[in-house]
Amino acid sequence: MIETAGVLRTIAMVVEYDGTGYHGMQRQTTLPTVAGELERALSKLFAHDVRIVAAGRTDAGVHATGQVVSCTTTSAFDLARLPIAASAMLRGSRIAILRAVEREPGFSARRHALARSYRYRIVNRTAPSPLNERRAFHVRAALEIATMRAGSEQLVGEHDFAAFCATPPVRGGTTRTLTGISVDRAGDFVELWMTADSFLHQMVRIVVGTLVDVGRGRLTPQEVGAILVSRQRERAGFTAPPHGLFLERVHYAHPI
Amino acid sequence: MIETAGVLRTIAMVVEYDGTGYHGMQRQTTLPTVAGELERALSKLFAHDVRIVAAGRTDAGVHATGQVVSCTTTSAFDLARLPIAASAMLRGSRIAILRAVEREPGFSARRHALARSYRYRIVNRTAPSPLNERRAFHVRAALEIATMRAGSEQLVGEHDFAAFCATPPVRGGTTRTLTGISVDRAGDFVELWMTADSFLHQMVRIVVGTLVDVGRGRLTPQEVGAILVSRQRERAGFTAPPHGLFLERVHYAHPI
User: Fold this and answer.
1) Residues of CATH 3.30.70.580 domain(s) within chain A?
2) Which of A18, A126, A130 sits opposite B18 (nearest CB)?
3) Which of B18, B58, B126 best tests the A interface by mutation, with the highest count of A CBs <10 A?
């Protein structure tokens, strides 16, 4: 390991976490958050205060297998060793750093992200699944995949997604580009994937809640398009719970 | 619901559980076990003492998605309603009854089982997986799938598996027929499936430990065959931990 302390490096990290028990991604003064835990561990490893920027502001209870965070450091810490060293520092937490690489100066996990992919898992059967208790949303009513797909297709493309937004952003409006959405069944599980340039607050969970209402026959696929056009949150479905949601991948011009 | 109380019925149930926190499947006087919890719930629903028989005696920490248990009852309880009624009784536990059906008098989930299929999950990468902490065994050393497969093939067929047995059974010897074994990689996960008429005590976990030793180059595939022939437990590999193991299916002449 070559000592180059003092040289400022920009680092990107792929992070997995079990969101159960965390008050979301973003740092809060007193509550345990993913960012708070990561900053604590990285500050020890780098021997200076670390502040991270995350690609996705996941809410309390939401999981990630491919969150990306960035930070700067003057430490010469060997990045190939970071996942193993961090796993010792993060023992007792539900967070792991899977990979760490140096990026160009000024790189931001948030601003340079081109798109995010989320997955939502549903257990769709009478009995709950103890093995997926904090990893999937339990829906008893039989979901019809064909109508859910037809409804989901109404959302693809560039639209004002205000109807699927809990709290509108302060800046930048509510137009987003949903580049892909899929609904698939595998046995008792229904899985939805969504990719967009970025997502509004609770957008994935409100889309899922609305498509679940389609799948159980409370809404028609066509009504999903009408809800989108209305831009009224109260016309869309319920907000599906956080524990079925996973931030799976963040896309960049140069993969992390 | 037709009241037929007093008529003895034999019932088979498919059960899922998260083995974390349970002292295995089999009833114990004071420790929490899966059988103990199930019997408590079923005794309430059927309004008489219930004793169950399980197809697989899973050890402490081992999970199941398709365990099968049987019992008899004089209750006329509607079996179609049992999964939902049991899920209320089992709230707070990590157990669910997925399905309940009536079987012929004398049916035993254990004695009539023709075969059992187990799955073993390994996370094979530097960093642990917080989302799979109690659901997969973390192995850091890169595992070579090809040699693990070659080793696994030495075990297929009818053999004396004494070398892969923690505690030999009191009756019936240590010969078993392993009808199928597979080793596959999907991203960071390595999954093993095994199907046999029945399994010896900790047989799956000792086979997995031995094949992990093959995958990381500590044993050759050929040595797996030599270990089998030796019938000496001390020549086989370590016992892989319980939390990666799932009883997935129990096979009968007439499916449950």
Assistant:
1) 9-103
2) A130
3) B126
How far, in Å, CA of B127 to CA of B110, rounded?
Answer: 39
- Which of A136, A166, A134 has its CA nearest to residue A21? A134
Instruction: Walk along chain B (256 residues) in steps of 10 and give the mean pLDDT of each run.
Output: 71 97 88 94 97 95 98 97 95 96 97 98 97 96 98 98 96 96 97 98 98 98 98 97 98 95
Name the nearest CA neighbour of A13 among A106, A58, A73, A79.
Answer: A79
Q: What is the ipTM of this complex?
A: 0.92
Residue B16 and residue A129: Cβ atoms within 8 Å? Answer: yes
pTM above 0.90, yes or no: yes
Contact A96 B128 (CB under 8 A): yes
Say which CATH class B115-251 falls into: alpha beta
Q: What is the CATH number of domain A9-103?
A: 3.30.70.580
Q: Exposed/middle/buried for A203, CB within 10 Å: 0-12, 13-18, 19+?
A: buried
Interface contact B130-A84, CB threshold 8 A: no
For residue A130, list chain B residues with Cβ-Cβ distance below 8 A. Answer: 16-18, 93-96
